[in-house]
Amino acid sequence: MIRVIVNGAMGKMGRTVCDAVTAEEDLELVAMIDPGFEKGDSGAGGVPAFSSLSECLEQTQADVAVDFTVPDAVFENVIACLKAEIHCVVGTTGLGDEQLQKIEFQTSSSGVNCLIAPNFAIGAVLLMEVSRVIARHMPSCEIVELHHDQKLDAPSGTALRTADLIARERGAEAPAPAGPEGDAARGYNHHGIPIHSVRLPGLVAHQEVIFGGQGQTLTVRHDSISRESFMPGVVLAVRRVAELDGIAVGLEKIL
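Now predict its structure.
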């Protein structure tokens, strides 16, 4: 039985993760953490609820912590869990390179692992892998990502990760489509790849990568219709994170 705590448990993703963990016979939800909880709160089945991660770590024994919080809090959350010798599965975006290096150092110091995934939907991971292959032959592309209006970051972590993979495959940067230098209408430029962000109510998580070549275009698109689309990936990560060696970025590392 893998004992799991969920940080950010009152958020939309956090609540969905709690339900997914509870539904699995080999996983046990032992605590929920969110600033919105009050002392004495508990979830379904009497699962303890804490308003602070530090209080939870003092009172709870866990094997894996799942974090779906906010960019401003995720780094300190991960470091605290790793110091407590708890493996981490992170879906919160916004971690910078310097923070990733510190997390990597902490994994080696604590002997536990951390998996960070910009997207836990299996289809989204396949989209990134397919885009990486296409980029070898059609290096010119743009990314359009569409999310619900409550998403805090733009561009999305998935779009940035996709651009990273494409850029590595195509080597020398392909020229961005013609336009005035610094033209904001061309999107956020990441490794020479324009990324366009849409934030609207009614959306969940969607991304398309449009490749262009001589006399042709090729579009790859993935749509998450509900947050349940992320749960198979989260559950897989909880089960497999202990098998990793230190830090890993991207769900494809365990697929």
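The mean pLDDT is 92.
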